[in-house]
User: Fold these one by one.
Assistant:
Number 1:
Amino acid sequence: MDCSELNSTEKTRTSKLLNEINEIYQDIREESMQSETTGGSVEKTVILLKEKAERGDSQAAFLLGQLHYEEGRYAEAEVIFDSIKDEDPRALYQLAVIYYDGLGTKEDLSKALEYMRTVAFWDSSEVGCIKYAALYNLGQAYLEGFGVEASSAEAERLWLLAADDGNPHACVKAQSSLGMFYCRPETLDLRKAFSWHSEACGNGSLESQGALGVMYLYGHGVQKDPDAALFCLKEAAERGNVYAQGHLTACYYHRKLYSRAAALGERFVLTLRVSGYEDISAIARHTDCLEEYIRKGIAIAMFYYARCLQLGRGVLKNRDRVKSYFTQAARIDPEICKELQMDVVHGRI
C-alpha cells in the first residue's frame, strides 16, 4: 500500500458508482463517454439523474443522492435522501450515516440511531442486505455507548443478527467483529472467536485473516499450527494487513530467519517513512481494520527490526537507527513494547 492507494479510495468509490449508473441507464452512459474527465462525467450524470428524478424515477433519485454523498456534497445528499426516506431504506440508511457522523450537518445521534433501527427492522424484502449493515452499526453504538447506554450483551445480540450464521451476503464486518468481541477479557471465549474469524476470513475479511494467523501461531482457541499461522500471516500481510505484517516479522525472527525478518522490517519502516503509513486512520479506512491493531502491528515490526539492527541479525549493526526505531515503536504502542522488552530481558528475543 502506498500514498496513491490511500488517497484514491474516494475517487474509486465515485468511479464505481458512475459505472453502476451507466449500467442502469444507457442514455447516461452515452453522454458520459463524451466527457474527457471524471469531473465532467460527474456533472453530466448529476444533470441527467436530476431530470429523471423530477419525472418520478425513484432509483434515479437515490443514485443522485448517493453521487452527491460520494462527492462530499452532504447537504445536497441530505435533502434528496430525506425526500425519499419513507420509501427507500437505502436513503434512510444514508441519512442515518450523515447524522451519526455529522456530515455537512449537526451530529444527531438520536435521529441517526432511530433511522438505523428502522432500517434494521424494515418489514419488507426491499431492504435487502442493507439491514445487516444497519444491525452492525447499531451493535457498534451499543458496544461504545454512542447515543445509547453501553451494553455488551445488546451489541452481541445485534452483531449475531448482522452476522446471520456466517452468511456471505450478510455483514462480514459483524462476523469479524464477533471474533474480536470474543477475544475481549470481559467476553472471552477463544473458541467462538476462532469460529467467527474463520467464517469472516472465508467471506473475505482481511482483518480476520490476520487474526487467524495469530491464533494459529499461539494456539488461541485452536491447536497451534505454525504452518497455518505462516500461511495466514503471509496472505494477510500481502493484502495490506499491518497487524499481520508485524507478526510475520516476529515469526521470521523467532524461526531464526533473520534476513527475512530484517528485510520485511526494513521494507515496512521505509513504507512508513515515504507513503503516509503513519496516517493510521487512513490505513484503517483502506483496509477495514481496527486502528488499535494497526498500531500494534507497526510497533511489533519496528521493534523486531530494531532488534535485528541492535544484534546484527540479518543486517549490519546500526546503533543510531536502533535507538530511533525503539523510541518510535514505544511511542506508537507503549504496552506492546513493554511486553516485548520483557521478552528481551528474559532472553526470548
Number 2:
Amino acid sequence: MASKSSILQILAFIFIFSPLAHSIQFNFPAVFNFGDSNSDTGGLVAGIGDRLDPPNGQIFFKRPAGRFCDGRLIIDFLMDAMDLPFLNPYLDSIGAPTFRKGCNFAAAGSTVLPASANAVSPFSFGIQVAQFMRFKIRVLQLLEKGRKFQKYIPQEDSFQKGLYMFDIGQNDLAGAFYSKSLDQILASIPTILVEFETGIQELYDQGARNFWIHNTGPLGCLTQNIAKFGTDPSKLDELGCVSGHNQAARLFNLQLQALCKKFQGQHPDAKVIHVDIYTIKYNLIANYSRYGFEHPLMACCGYGGLPLNYDSRVPCGKTKVVNGTEITAKGCSDSTEYVNWDGIHYSEAANQYVSSQILTGKYSDPPFSDKMPFLLPLKF
C-alpha cells in the first residue's frame, strides 16, 4: 500500500515527464465538485435533513459520514492524492466547515436534467451550478472585508486556477428505465448532454478553466438494477449484468466524450480531461478475483442473502416491517471482499481500486501517462 508521499512523488513524476506535462497539472489550489452519490460527501443528508445509519462509514470514518459507502469515495482518494483535504459539502453548515481548498456541490440522487417532483434529490446539475455562483459571490464579498475570513474560504484566483470535477448522469439513465423503453432512453441522451454542456459553459464563463469529467459506470452491473431488471437471463451479459443498462451507459459515454472534445476545441484556453470510469469499473467486475475481491455483484450491506443480498424495500442500515415481519439490512463481515456496498454504490475497497487506476492516467482523454505500466498496481 503506497503512502501519501509516494503517491505525490508519482504524480510529480507524471507532471514532469509526461509529454502532456504542460497541459496536465495536479497542484490545484482548490477543487469544486459537482455530481451525485458517487462523489457526495454529505450534501444530500444535510440538504434534506436526512441521516445515514451504521454500518455506513464504518471502515475509515468509524461512523456515518454523509457518504453512501462503508468508507471513502473516489473523490476522497483523489483529494488525498493531490494533498488536499476532503471536500466539505456546500449544504452542510454544521461543524465549522472550511472551504479554503474547495467545495463539494454534489448530492446523492441528483440528475443532470432538472429534478422531477418525486426525485430523490432536488439538487440537479443546474441547481448545483447556481449554488456555485452564489458561493463565488459570497466568497468575493467576504474577501473584500479583509483577512478575517481567509482561512475559511478560497482565494479569488482559486476560481480560475482550481480544478472543476464532474461525475453525474448515472441517475438520469438509471431512473429512466422505470418508465421508458431502451430506445426512448437512448434518444434522450443528447438532451441530457445539452443540459450538461450548458452548465459547464456557465462555469467557464465564471472563470473555470480546468475540467475533470468522469463518464458513467456500468449501470447494468449494479445490484439494484440486476435485482429489478435482470430476472430474465436473456437480458444479462456474460458477467451477469443487465445488457440494456450498460448499452445506455456506453452510448452516453461516447456522446459525453465527443462533447468534451467539442468543448475543448471551442475553448483552447481550457483543459478538459475525460476519464473513462466505465472501463475501469467493468474491468474490476470482470476480473474481480485478480484484484482481491470475492463478490463482484452481491451487496455487502443488504437483506436477502444469496445471490444478490438486496431488497429495495430495506436500505442499508435500516429496519423495516415487511409483510408483518421486521427485517434489517445489515453489513457483511468483511466489506473489502465486495465490489458493491449497498446495492447501488461501490465499497471503499472498490473505490480505492478505481482511484488507483484513474491515477495511472491511461484511462484519461487526453492521457497523462501512456508509457508507465509500473503504475498499474498502485494502491493507497
